[in-house]
Amino acid sequence: MGRPLMSRKGDLAMLSYFVLHIPLTLLFDAQFLAPEFTRSHWPAFLLDAVQDYLRDSNDFLVKLQPVWFMSFLTCEMLFQLPLNLIMVHALATDAPHTRTTGIIYAVHTATTMVPILTEVFLGPGAAIVGQTQPQWLYMAAIYFIWLAVPLLILAAMLSRQPTHTTHKLKKE
């Protein structure tokens, strides 16, 4: 067991992010990947929350569902979600693998955000769905957060001392 969590303010902030990201992924992003299942199994307030987001943002990526975007949502479920769970445990216990796992998560997440933000800023989607400027700004801000936070996590993990395991070599 490592240092107490309350003495690691940065880890506490990252832990909060990962703890919040797990239900967001399961309860919101799942609605775009499995709409029939979630419509029949998710409570109305969760379905309404996504509809409110779509009304407020007119998110053309969610509305148009390009294959590449849906593949990123699938990666989020199959790769990022398990990493979120691992990071919750790693940060809570100050595990030796925290740095490596955090770097993997942050690089993967930030990399997936590059084409998403490129599409948001340069693609024709806003015009296709008739997105207003306030809707576009709201959508861009939401997506930008998912780039900014992983980059902060990456910086924190890169500045974290690597944990080395030392092995003594036997002299013959």
Automatic annotation (TrEMBL):
<keyword id="KW-0256">Endoplasmic reticulum</keyword>
<keyword id="KW-0472">Membrane</keyword>
<feature type="transmembrane region" description="Helical">
    <location>
        <begin position="103"/>
        <end position="130"/>
    </location>
</feature>
<feature type="transmembrane region" description="Helical">
    <location>
        <begin position="12"/>
        <end position="34"/>
    </location>
</feature>
<dbReference type="GO" id="GO:0005789">
    <property type="term" value="C:endoplasmic reticulum membrane"/>
</dbReference>
<protein>
    <recommendedName>
        <fullName>Efficient mitochondria targeting-associated protein 19</fullName>
    </recommendedName>
</protein>
<comment type="similarity">
    <text>Belongs to the TMEM97/sigma-2 receptor family.</text>
</comment>
<dbReference type="InterPro" id="IPR016964">
    <property type="entry name" value="Sigma2_recept"/>
</dbReference>
<dbReference type="InterPro" id="IPR051987">
    <property type="entry name" value="Sigma-2_receptor-like"/>
</dbReference>
<feature type="transmembrane region" description="Helical">
    <location>
        <begin position="67"/>
        <end position="91"/>
    </location>
</feature>
<feature type="transmembrane region" description="Helical">
    <location>
        <begin position="136"/>
        <end position="158"/>
    </location>
</feature>
<keyword id="KW-0812">Transmembrane</keyword>
<dbReference type="Pfam" id="PF05241">
    <property type="entry name" value="EBP"/>
</dbReference>
<keyword id="KW-1133">Transmembrane helix</keyword>
<feature type="domain" description="EXPERA">
    <location>
        <begin position="10"/>
        <end position="154"/>
    </location>
</feature>
<dbReference type="InterPro" id="IPR033118">
    <property type="entry name" value="EXPERA"/>
</dbReference>
